[in-house]
Amino acid sequence: MAGLSLKSVKKRFGETEVIRGVDLDVRDGEFVVFVGPSGCGKSTLLRMIAGLETTTSGSIEIGGRDVTGEDPAKRGIAMVFQTYALYPHMTVATNMGFPLEMAKRPKDEIDRKVRDAAKILHLEQYLERKPRELSGGQRQRVAIGRAIVRQPGVFLFDEPLSNLDAELRVQMRIEIAKLHQDLGTTMIYVTHDQVEAMTLADKIVVLRAGRIEQVGAPLELYENPDNAFVAGFIGSPRMNFVPATVKSAQGNVAVVTAPKVGLSEVAVTTRGTPPAPGSDVSIGIRPEHFVPAEGAAAVLSGKITIVERLGGVAYAHAQIEDGNTITVESRDAREFTAGATTRFGIDPKRAFLFDKDGRRA
Amino acid sequence: MKRSWRQASALYGGLAALALIIGLPFWWVVTGSIKLPREIIQREPTMIPHSFTLQHFEKLLQASDFPVYLLNSVIVAVFSTAFTVLLALPAAYAFFRMEFPGRNTLYRTILLAYAFPGVVVLIPLYGLFAKVGLIDSPVALVIVNVALALPFSIWMMRSFLATVPREIEEAAVVDGAPTTTILLRILMPLIAPGIASVAIFAFISSWTEYLFASVLIVSDARRTIPVGFAGIIGQYQIDWGLLLAGATAAIVPVVALFAFIGRWFVSGLTEGAVK
Lengths: 361, 275
Ligand SMILES: Nc1ncnc2c1ncn2[C@@H]1O[C@H](COP(=O)(O)OP(=O)(O)OP(=O)(O)O)[C@@H](O)[C@H]1O
Ligand SMILES: [Mg+2]
Prior knowledge:
heterodimer, A: alpha+beta, Rossmann fold, 2 domains, elongated, B: mainly alpha, 13 helices, binds magnesium ion
């Protein structure tokens, strides 16, 4: 088991800087999830931790040891790839035992550890099969098994479930959570999937263009995002942003208006000193935080273009008066009729304010 | 994909024409080898043999030096093939995966080896082998054959390596496998069809090589089939039956090799790895 620490880590491919100075501390046993838009450098950062990519500058410590220039095999990590990366010509048992074989462990120890891992992953009856004779979920389990047998200090996962179908994904997600519970090993996990990130993570790292935008517990990022990017990225469907202007400010409350969409004088609580009156801001409202229009402190009205009914919830996509589209969630699908102009109530207490550079105000 | 009747007939017609062009000479050689001499030299050639005899083969194996040439050819070809494969694999891997200065330039340059006709390097090579005392030795032929087959083999092997998903190698690196282990335990089994192709290419190049074998080998007892066989023809004027029997017998090892190596040409070796 091991903690991990990245210090001003950078990566350049030729002229392009892909990781632009990342500092991160991961406690021993923590489950950390990297999220961010495609191409932001999640995989690259993970591969740098694994040692599959060299580090251009900065340092990587695993378990208190500087491993920046170390070979992948000597870092005390194990990696699970999105594409499983099994050895197709070897049996499941040989696949799982391969790292131990490379470490020149005695045969009986290899056998025992492979059988132990197979038991945890329900692979016992498949040990003599070849990967091509397994289902996708079983293959990914073998890949995880191959990682487990090494008893690494840190597990690295790069979108391990994205090749699986939805149902299997849910099942494997729960298995990975269990695995983390049972082994208590540090895990770093890259994903595109909101639900995976929110449910698995002790700590989410939001990356954008090679930089960390914010690090925090899932709910912390949800409830208290540092900027519009994180606010938009965490939470699904995305947060709505409505351009507005600060009318007056007092204490840590800003009164904003957006006459174009019919909002006058909405008092939004800010984190610190509110922006000066006259500054351009945007109000952030999550789709799930709209309230009934009657009795609401402020109301947006818009023409519903599309209604998505998911059973438990429904989403209305509505065009508001400045031409932008907002998404509104409701538990009651009957509230929404496509084509109807509808009033949506805003709860200012649950609204966020961002300055024109996207920083949280 | 469904083909229309027209497309299908064009396709099969084309294929049949090609098969005929390639197959007819073979047919004529093989059937000719069992015809009586007078049928072979008949004014109207027969496609279906009217006579049957094994006399040409008897003469070939008993009264000519063919068995010696055959053995020489097999020895030279087997060693040439083995060394070509053994050298092409690590070389191709180096060009494929390792980073060293001048890699791309070198990779493009090796194919330049084929820009020079054999005759151009024949004299200098002869001088070179004479200096180290390898004239009239099968070792010289093996060296030449390997040198001739290697550039293309490396090139071919590299494209086969490129079909192995990168993650498999990376997983092996993380698992602590040294480069040689990755090459031998992971990549080699996965590119077996590539190795088989290279082996066949190297074997056939060596089997049919004439120019160097005719100059670097002096004594009759060390000749390979192409050169030795040319001698047979001259020696007995043109004994067509013997010639055809010899040509037929010379094809046999190649056919056997195809049959033996053919089992490696299975597709889907990497199936289950990354999907
Ligand atoms: N070997 C490489 N050479 C050059 N550029 C690279 C290389 N590998 C990655 N990049 C670039 O680095 C950036 C980050 O890539 P990376 O694969 O880390 O993104 P990612 O966040 O994992 O994206 P995704 O979510 O699509 O997997 C991309 O712009 C990519 O083009
Ligand atoms: Mg990625």
